[in-house]
Amino acid sequence: xxxxxxxxxxxxxxxxxxxxxxxxxxxxxxxxxxxxxxxxxxxxxxxxxxxxxxxxxxxxxxxxxxxxxxxxxxxxxxxxxxxxxxxxxxxxxxxxxxxxxxxxxxxxxxxxxxxxxxxxxxxxxxxxxxxxxxxxxxxxxxxxxxxxxxxxxxxxxxxxxxxxxxxxxxxxxxxxxxxxxxxxxxxxxxxxxxxxxxxxxxxxxxxxxxxxxxxxxxxxxxxxxxxxxxxxxxxxxxxxxxxxxxxxxxxxxxxxxxxxxxxxxxxxxxxxxxxxxxxxxxxxxxxxxxxxxxxxxxxxxxxxxxxxxxxxxxxxxxxxxxxxxxxxxxxxxxxxxxxxxxxxxxxxxxxxxxxxxxxxxxxxxxxxxxxxxxxxxxxxxxxxxxxxxxxxxxxxxxxxxxxxxxxxxxxxxxxxxxxxxxxxxxxxxxxxxxxxxxxxxxxxxxxxxxxxxxxxxxxxxxxxxxxxxxxxxxxxxxxxxxxxxxxxxxxxxxxxxxxxxxxxxxxxxxxxxxxxxxxxxxxxxxxxxxxxxxxxxxxxxxxxxxxxxxxxxxxxxxxxxxxxxxxxxxxxxxxxxxxxxxxxxxxxxxxxxxxxxxxxxxxxxxxxxxxxxxxxxxxxxxxxxxxxxxxxxxxxxxxxxxxxxxxxxxxxxxxxxxxxxxxxxxxxxxxxxxxxxxxxxxxxxxxxxxxxxxxxxxxxxxxxxxxxxxxxxxxxxxxxxxxxxxxxxxxxxxxxxxxxxxxxxxxxxxxxx
Length: 753
Description:
The protein is mainly α.
């Protein structure tokens, strides 16, 4: 049909012809069991060719005709897809997947037409919403792949301009599907849907934000109402009333006696003795008014001293009643009606359920801690090593098996049978879930005590909760107890706790972002001009020479060493480097002592004698420097003055501050002695001993004789020739023996003739 002929047709004729041709086209393109699913580009080419043959130009037509054509196309594709969905139950097993492919093909047609501008962008989601209502859950699981596979063509994540139009249609389609699914049997599919919804919208989109802070009050936990045995309660009440009556009677009698004694005293002072109270004349009307009020006050006081009914209720009721507060924290500020109130009907705190909540929380945490300790004892790690993931002496294999078992734990809804509570408490995954619930609730309530005050969401949801220092202290201590208990769970308690805390910190940031009206935090895209300028700057930096380094060799210490010794290559650094002499360390130590004394003298001059504190920072640095210099000097001296060190520190103990000075004096003395011996040795005449030079060894003489002016004795005899001595050092000794004589000096020099 040409465009000229279409304009001559009436609107009903145009819509009828369009519907007929579109149905024929969809029927001809139905996926057969033997054919494979068509790709999206082929669908776009097919629908483009169909529209060209149709010859209908919506851009030049009237607005009403354009909207009518869009409605016809959307209705035809929806009816064709729903007709295929209705046959799902009667379709054979081998033909079921081609049926799902044919439904997804209809969705591809609607998506292609929306991309070509012939349909609205939300049309695929509107059709999908009705399809989800027709198909079974397995069919919905297969058709949902259309959204996951076509995320690019659907232009996800959606821009902010389409969130209120196309985004709402997508949300309705996904919510219709979520409403049909079971949280226990279809949990994985629910996770797929939620993950897709999170990726379909930008991170700052307000569509998924709970701006009002509404709680999921529909998540109710039902449990049996186990009542406490009334015998014990009645006994407590009877004993309480008897004690109260006895106390009241005793109090009234004491007051009457005091009154009578006072009146008698006054009459005795006046000298008049009267007996106003006669037997049978007691004025009963004058007494009851005050005692009744006193009795009521005493009864109320005694009632407050009795333990709260919450503390004596069955643990089963205490444990499961906390789920109401977890689901709806507003119950802490406004007590619910008595029919739905989680606390006991006999609770004395009817004005505020917070005291009962505190009792229940403390009782549950204590019980969970006892279960953890029991588990440690059964596992053989009662010393608290469970947080490390160990199990006795079995090693890493046990830890891997335990962690692998935890990966399969999933509890969509608690089982609240009284007979199962003991087994649930023995399960570490169950205890961890309860402890995490405590952390989530406490983090929400701790915002009430924030330095800047509670946020708008928390303030509006908990308006009547009275804040005081006692509650804040209880929250902090209970928070620490829950964290301690969570860390002690096995296996990997520390790692598990850190993961939970990281998630809670992100949740806290998310709440603060909502309190500030969801301020946009995504950055705008970089413009082309900025990209070009960045590219030019990067090329300039790549070609420019590198800037000079602050240190020529890389580090200050290495640069100083390099410049000090005029090094030119790294090989020159090999080998032992010469150390500073002992005199250099002694000079530095003397300078440090001088600086310390100057510091002390200046401080005491300004503040008085003895005013320098012992922990003065400058004096501490000076002491550290002197200790370092002393150690380095001793380390250097240990290589050359080992005998001197032994005599110095073993035979003659020396104070630590005088180590280097004593060593330096000993070194100077030794140098003087060596110099004197060298001079004395040089002043001696040359000693020559005659004998056969070829022997090279000492020959034994037979008798003593004089050789070149030196008296030489035979074996067993010796002659020492001494010159002037200085101190304890001998100038020269000559010892000769045998026929070949050797002249020897005291410093070890040997002269051969």
